[in-house]
Amino acid sequence: MAVDDVTDVLVVGAGPTGLALACGLRLQGVGVRVIDRLPAPATTSRANFVHVRGSEVLARLGALGDLPQRSVRAMRITTYLGDRPMMRIRFGDPGLRTAAPPMVVSQALVEGELRRRLAELGVTPEWGVSLTALTQDDDTVAAELDDGRTVRTRWLVGCDGTASAVRKAVGINAPGVRLSERFLLADLHLDWDMDRTGTSGWVHPTGMLGAMPMPDDEGRGDLWRLIAYDPASAELEQTADTSVAGTTGAPRAADAYGRRSRLTEEQILDRLRAILPERTGRDVRVLDSEWLSEFTIHRRLADRYRRGRVLIAGDAAHAHAPFGGQGMLTGLGDAENLAWKLALVARGRASATLLDTYEAERRPLATDVLRGTANVTRVNVARSPVGRFMRDHVLIRLFNQPWVQRWVTFTTSQLWVSYRSGPLGVGRAERVAARLGRRICVGDRVPNLDCTRRDGTPTRLYAELGGRWALFVPPSGTAKAEPSAEPGDQPTRLTRTDGVAEAWLVRPDGHLAWRGADPASATPWLADLLRTGRTR
């Protein structure tokens, strides 16, 4: 059995979470290897929306690239009852000075930009490599691979999806419940009279239907992502099994990860050809298909995110319904939160206790997000007369209110995420004072504020993070005794231009770590964090 040299961190899974984590670690000088069981990068995906917060994470990693130019800016959702519009919701920046735009773009393109950035940082994912087993001791993890090699690593992170081999190997439970029957999912070229500046949805007695315009490399301008609730298609499974067994040889559909569907591609396409005119009341001609799949929705949450030197993130830790684009967004947030903490620990600059704050900060968020996506799923698949009446007549009227639409944008963007009550936050009295005073609190997201560099060059906060801390000081602030994660590796010092006479220490993930009148006072705070792994 061949044993590879010890690496700092082995990331299992080259989806958006694993790639973002690897980029964040490399930005801070940590050695990384990335493996994935797929033979090559996925070209299709269920996820196709990146909210503002996800765009901000990509920008801080240097992985936003030209995604805004390649995306479709469909920032409106119109819900129809037949051909009659019932509700319109607009998405965008809810006045929180965001650094990057929300985007309708395939997860495959997002992963492509992350791979490009990771290559710039010196790492290429190893494809067609599966984890089969792992063991760990006080110092390392031994990961056994399906090609006979054993990789020794100081830390291992499972970003390998809902059926995570890493999670199972270390015995982390992830209980869950099924929330729906079958949904059909497809990327189709359609000839129909629909506005491509927004997403459209239809409520219908037989189930909901959603259509989102998608960018396509050929520039045809007719590619749409369709999602249709179709519990009636369950009766087609026996026919699919017979055809695959040898009657017709019809191929089964597959998802982005190669998992076989219970239906054939032709059966899914035939169902969508019937569903489109039935639920929209429009003439629709299906030109051709790019991808066809189906899925059921499960809600799942791991009971812990760490066991020894092994951690999990993204879909390995939490499984979401696709509504609201929360799965990829939450995974990117996991990756950025974990990257700066694991980097400090892997470089020997912080206590391993710091890693416990990853679960303490991120798992409560996943709980909240799962609750929200589960509720949206139940509304979308409501079939009882009472449930359909509440959705089609009460909720639709409510969601037409401007203040509700602002709340929806704010909630789904995850710009509200705060760690103020976590182990790196502050006490209850200070949290209450911040809320009453409507001011930023330690643990909150810091807006992408204007500032200047040491040489007076104008810049913005997020452009200066990139895996580093930032010390935000008023114009009269001193440069002496600035806090340092290690000698010679000081936070980026930036001068405020917003007139606030207070120093802020900003974490690499854009959250406020410390605030005070004297910048030098941040030094003992950071030293205590690195020594103990928590601040309270």
Overall description:
By secondary structure, the chain is α+β, with helices and mostly antiparallel strands. The strands form six sheets. Strands 1, 2, 7, 8, 9, 10, 20 and 21 form an eight-stranded mixed β-sheet that branches. Strands 5-4-13-14-15-12-18 form a seven-stranded mixed β-sheet, sandwiched between helices. A six-stranded mixed β-sheet has the order 24-23-26-25-27-28, with no helix packed on it. Strand 23 and strand 24 (458-460) form a beta hairpin. The longest helix is centred in the last third of the chain and has 25 residues, at 356-380. It is globular. It starts with a strand and ends with a helix. The model is unreliable at 242-248 (pLDDT under 50).
Portion in beta strands: 25-35%
Let me know the largest β-sheet.
Answer: 8 strands, mixed
Estimated structural class: alpha+beta
Mean pLDDT, rounded to whole units?
84
Assembly form of the protein: single chain
- Rg, nearest Å: 24 Å
Count the E strands.
28
Number of helices: 13
How far apart lie the N and C ends? 46 Å
The parts where pLDDT drops under 50 for at least 5 residues are 242-248
Helix content: 25-40%
Write a concise synopsis of the structure shown:
The protein is α+β, with helices and mostly antiparallel strands and 536 residues long.
Blueprint of the fold:
Blueprint: E1 3-12, H1 16-27, E2 32-36, E3 49-50, H2 52-61, H3 67-70, E4 76-81, E5 84-90, E6 103-104, H4 107-120, E7 126-127, E8 131-136, E9 141-145, E10 150-158, H5 165-169, E11 176-178, E12 183-191, E13 199-202, E14 209-213, E15 223-229, H6 237-247, E16 252-254, E17 260-264, H7 265-280, E18 285-295, E19 298-301, E20 306-307, E21 310-312, E22 318-319, H8 326-346, H9 356-380, H10 385-399, H11 402-413, H12 428-437, E23 450-452, E24 458-460, E25 470-473, E26 492-496, E27 503-506, E28 512-516, H13 522-532
Helix pairs in contact: 1-4, 1-8, 2-8, 8-9
